[in-house]
Amino acid sequence: MMTSHDNTNDRPALRVYMTGGCDGSETLRAALASHPDVEFVGASEEIKDAAAALAGGHLQVVLHATRASSLPADELASIREHTRAPIVLVASGEASRLLDEALDADVSDVLLLPQLADNVVFALRKAAHTARRSDGVRGRQGTIITVFSPKGGTGKTVMATNLAAALVRVAGKKTLLLDLDLQFGDAAIMLGVEPEKTIFDLVVAPGELDSEKLSGYTTHHPCGLEILPAPLRPEDAELVTEAKLARLLEVARESYDAIVVDTSPFFHGPMLATLDRTDELFLLCGLDVPTLKNVKLALQTLEMLSFPRDRIRIVLNRANSKVGMKPSEVEDALGMKIRHHIPSDRAVPFGVNKGKPVVLYDEDSDFARALRELAKGVLPKPEAPKKRSLLRPLART
User: What is the DSSP string of 23-88?
Assistant: First the structure.
């Protein structure tokens, strides 16, 4: 379970997960867990036991303790299967070879124990700062919006397709709709397009994935939306691995202002890989007991995965339905406020059957108006430029 503390410096606490072990790592772990600048998500000596937290924790830094005297390449590779967060290594004893080899490796810093907790926190913050600055240098960093429901029939794909179309039409954003309901995805059908290529064709194609290659595999909707549909055959879903999906999302971030991800109702590998990169999670609920029960379980699972609660938006679909349950009862049951109320509207089934997003073909409908308002507020506002400060060099004890 994650532990958070009040931050006396008015800076957001760093989300840190610790893996591995070495002499002195237990002492460091205890110090970090109580440090006001750290939101200590958790720790595990075995990387395989940390897979869910690494993939779903939206981490800023991974602190890996190693007993190896040289670079633990296999351990680093295992971490990289689950997260792209910067890695800071800690070791004890004589580790000159480790220090030399780390210079050319995917490692942000190496610290030799013992160290003051404040020194380690400084190194962690520096690693996170450098990673953010590198992201900015790469250019466009699109917002990943994941639409999820732990139960079928809640209108998840309708929401994802209409939100993606609204981001193009209303917000003027270059948008990709990614259908990750890999076995039975319907996004292309609901948009009335017949794709020549799917995500399956992309991930099995030879060569390195980049922005140009990604663009060659998307299907273009007349409104300007680009779609990467689910595989045509359910058995092809197995080839969309977590590693390939992680790379796909990284490339998509550099190519689009917004990436809307439609998902299946399961916490499987592709979903965990997506959560690790999700900026906004739209969790759909309905006014019925089975859906409410599943959404509550989903929130518990997200907490176990240490997914940031402030990135979750509860969306009540068909919110005006008279079915014997009130929105306030949903909020009481979930312990969270409903962020968006989406009305039931006859225009929705008509749009589905016509293969036309309601936000495009029936702009005056209640559903379309609600989706336009949602789209306007979903992307982050540009930040005012901040004064840059110099970082102090790390002092070892």
Answer: TTHHHHHHHHHT-TTEEEEEEESSGGGGHHHHHHS--SEEEEE---SS--HHHHHHHHTT--S-EE
Contact 92, 23 (CB under 8 A): yes
Say if CB 220 and CB 184 are below 8 A apart: no
User: Could you give phi then psi for residue 291, rounded to 5 degrees?
Assistant: -65, -40
Distance of CA 92 to the CA centre of its chain: 34
Task: Please tell me whether residues 183 and 168 are part of one structural domain.
Answer: yes
Tell whether 319 and 341 lie within a shared domain: yes
User: What DSSP state is assigned to residue 380?
Assistant: P
Sign of CA dihedral 392, 394, 396, 397: positive
Residues 163, 98, single domain; the answer is no
Q: Which of the listed residues 137, 160, 186 is the one where a domain comes to its end? A: 137
Map residue 209 onto helix, strand or coil: coil
Walk across the sheet containing 312-317 and list its strands.
219-220, 226-228, 175-180, 258-263, 143-148, 280-285, 312-317, 338-342
Query: Does residue 86 sit in the same domain as residue 149?
Result: no
Give the predicted TM-score (pTM) of the model.
0.68
Strand partners for 314: 283, 338
Alpha carbon distance 327, 338 (integer Å): 8
Number of domains in the chain: 2
203 and 265, same domain (yes or no): yes
Is the separation of the CB atoms in 42 and 2 below 8 Å?
yes
For residue 30, the domain's CATH number is 3.40.50.2300
Range of the domain at 244: 143-378
Mean pLDDT of the residues in the chain: 85
pLDDT at 306: 84
Residue 248 counted as domain residue = yes
Residues 235 and 309 in one domain: yes
- Rounded distance between C-alpha atoms, residue 359 and residue 371, angstroms: 7
Question: What tens digit of pLDDT does each residue of 272-315 get?
Answer: 889 988 999 999 999 999 999 999 999 999 998 889 999 999 99
User: CB-based contacts of 221: which residues, under 8 Å, 6+ apart?
Assistant: 165, 191, 193, 227
CATH of the domain at 239: 3.40.50.300
The string of pLDDT tens digits covering residues 87-118 is 999 998 776 778 778 777 778 888 888 889 99
Q: Output the CA torsion 255→261→262→267 (10° steps).
A: 140
